[in-house]
Every structure is written in structure tokens, then in C-alpha cells.
Amino acid sequence: MSEAPVPPDRSREGPVRGGGSSRKCLELERWRKELYVLWVCNFVVNLGFSLIMPFLPFYVQELGVTETRRVELWTGAIFAANFLTMTLFSPIWGAVADRTGRKLQMLRSGFGMALVVGMMGLARNVWQLLGLRLLQGVFSGFIPASTAYMAANVPRERAGWALGVLQTAGAAGTVIGPLAGGLLARAIGGYRPIFFLTAGACFLAGLVVLLVIRERFTPPPHVGQMSFVAELRQDLRQAVANPVLLAMMVVYFFNFFGLQTAEPILTLFLQTLDTPAQWVDVMAGAVFSASGVANVIFAPLLGRMGDRLGYKRVLVYALGGASVLYLLQGLATSAWQLLVLRFLLGACLGGGFPAANALVSRAAGREFQGRAFGLVNSAIFIGDVVGPLVGGLVASAWGHRMVFPVTAAALVFNLLWVQRKVPADSGREAPRDPDRLTPVTDR
């Protein structure tokens, strides 16, 4: 009987041809899978928070504040509270992420917000709600952390596409959430269960990250060479030395100051129009969703217009249109008029924000872009804090309608500031850096 052939010994021949290719395919599949997983997580988190935001004024009333002026003041303070602590803690969590990785930040935020938002549904008075909103800002940061994670783990040649896809999750959640929240509030007859649903959404996002995301994090060599305060001081010096970047930080502050001045009182304003009481919840959700729908539709179209006509010109047109639309909102006599005006406002914002982002990107240069957008986010957060407080004070002193001219005046000032301080551009020379991140103010 002949012996069976002995298989050749390939132990010294090195890796089998194609092994490297297989590993590359596995890596490709891994980042795609994580992109889709984080898309779902971001959508769920944004959807959850968008469910509750339009109804905070009603919840304040449910907690025992009945006098209209006090409702306006408390609503403004509760809106601003989250952004106040977010402003203080976001740079700290960003520095921690550079040292420990982004997955830990997503877990901190997802599970932390689940606990805090769930407790909001158990609040017994407005002081407890205010304290929990302050605590919520400490735990915020899920979406910036997930965006930074994908930016660091996606292949460079696909970064622009991947980050664009991830950004649509926030937009989709913000569009669907308010209207879904209105329908839920009407169906279940209360607001407390919506907080529990939002808490569940945050917990689910944290759990999925824990089980699915596999971060292999190595701190960059320069991390730890300079203290956080020293790095921040250095970044501020560099921003102050760049007049266009400094001007754009002012632009972002007034943009978000204007937006947040009107947001807290929109639902209360609806109550004074011809909206039937049983449909106020649904209409409030629709009014909040309308601008988001228009933003999603018009942002790509007006972004391309900026490429052709110049970003400064598009930003000026957007600010001018938004200021007129805010004035008209103050004159609205029906919920349907307000709904249409909010949709048109979203179209203007859809042109303004991409143009502003492009101007920041050009002013910062490739080496400073990440830190530049970090500073821009700080300007946004400050606007988010000041805006609701001013809106609540104005509404309390002079009524809801007066808030809209104040917002329009802020945007007119912003328009004049852009005209004076931001240099003209052709749009065609804007950098096409795939790693450019849009400033986020998300959860």
C-alpha cells in the first residue's frame, strides 16, 4: 500500500498570500458596522431628547407653576441650565477623551443621561427639575464623542462620506422627535412617561456601544505634554490672533443666542393662538419639527450655492431672511401661520450654518481646524445659555410677541457684523478637507 502524501511544510513560507487582503476586508467591515451602529444610537438619542423639548413649558405648569410670567422665567432658566453645565464640562470631557478614548465618553454620557432624564420624570417641583437639567449638562456629549470616534477610525478617503452619514442621524431624530412627542403626549395623556422613554433611549444607546464598539485607543504622543488649561490658553491666543476666526465666533454666538431666545416660549406662544387645547401638544411638535424638515431639505442645495456665489454672501442672505421671518412670527395670528414661517426659517438656517462652517474651516486652516471648531462650540454653548434666559425675561416683562423682534434684532446685528468683519470670498477656494467636523451642540 502506498503511503499517503505528506503535505508540504509551509510554516517558514510567511503569511499566505491574500491574508493581508482578508484582514483589510475585515477592518473595512468593522468600521462600516460601527458607523451604522452609531447612526442608530445617535438617532435614538436625538429622537429621545426631541420628544421632550417642546413640552418643557407644559411640564413646568404641571409641577405647580401656574402664573404665566413665572412659567416664562422658569422655562427660560430650565432651557439654559443644561447648556450652562455643558459649556463648563465639554472642554474637560474632550481633554479626557484625548487621554482615555471616545468609547468611555459615550458610555459615561449614555448611561449618565439615562439616569438623570429618568429622574426628571419623577420630579416633584421645578427646583428639582432645574437641578436635574444642570446635571444633564454634566453628562451630555454622546454625539460629539461618537463623531470623534468615527473621525478617528474611518479610512481617510471615506471620512467625509461617513461623517455626513452620521450627521443625518441627528437631523432625522430632531425632525421626527417633536412631532412623535406631541402624538405620544396626546395618546398617553401626560408628559412624565416621555421622560422615561427618553431615558430608555439613552440607556439603549449606551448598552449598544458597550456590546458592539471595540475601540483600540492609543493616546497621541503629545497628549499630557501640556496641561489642559495651558492648551486652552494657547488655542484662545491663536484664535484671537486670527481676526476672521474671532469674528466667526461672534457670529455663532449671536446665531444661537437668537435661536434660543425664541425656542423656550414657542409652545407658550401657541397656547395664545387659535389652537384647540386638545391639539396644542401635536401642533407644538409640528412647529418644532418644521424648521428641521426644511433644514434637511435646503442645506445641501444652499451649500452648493455657497460654493458658487461665496459663503459670505449666502450667510448674509440667510441672516437677512431669518430676521424678517422672526419679525413675521411675532405677528402670527394662527398656529398654521407659525408653522409655515418656521418651515421657511429652517430653509434660511439650512443655508446659514453650512456657509458659516465653511468660513470657519477656511479661516482656521487644516492644522487648527479641530481646535477651532471646539472654540466655536464654546461660543455656541454660551449663546445657548444666554438666549433662553433673555427670552424668558423679555416674555415675562413684555409678553411673548416681543421676544421675536428681540431675536430679529440679534440677527440683524449679526448680519451687519458679518458685512463689516468677514472678508468676501468666491466660495470656490474653500478647503475640501474630509476631516472637517461641523460644530455640534447635540446631547
Notes on the structure:
The relative contact order is 0.14. The chain has 443 residues and is an all-alpha fold. It folds into 2 domains: 24-215, Growth Hormone, Chain: A (Up-down Bundle); 228-426, Growth Hormone, Chain: A. The protein has 15 helices and no strands. The termini are far apart.
Average pLDDT, all residues = 82
**Overall spatial form:** globular
What portion of residues belong to β-strands? under 5%
CATH topology of the largest domain: Growth Hormone, Chain: A
Q: Could you name the ranges where pLDDT drops below 50 across 5 or more consecutive residues?
A: 1-18, 429-442
CATH second-level architecture of the largest domain: Up-down Bundle
Count of structural domains: 2
Structural category: mainly alpha
Q: How many individual helices?
A: 15
List keywords for this structure.
mainly alpha, disordered C terminus, 0% strand, 443 residues, 2 domains, disordered N terminus, 15 helices, globular, Growth Hormone, Chain: A
Architecture blueprint of SSEs:
Blueprint: H1 19-52, H2 56-62, H3 68-100, H4 102-120, H5 126-139, H6 142-153, H7 159-188, H8 192-212, H9 228-240, H10 243-271, H11 280-309, H12 311-329, H13 335-364, H14 369-398, H15 403-421
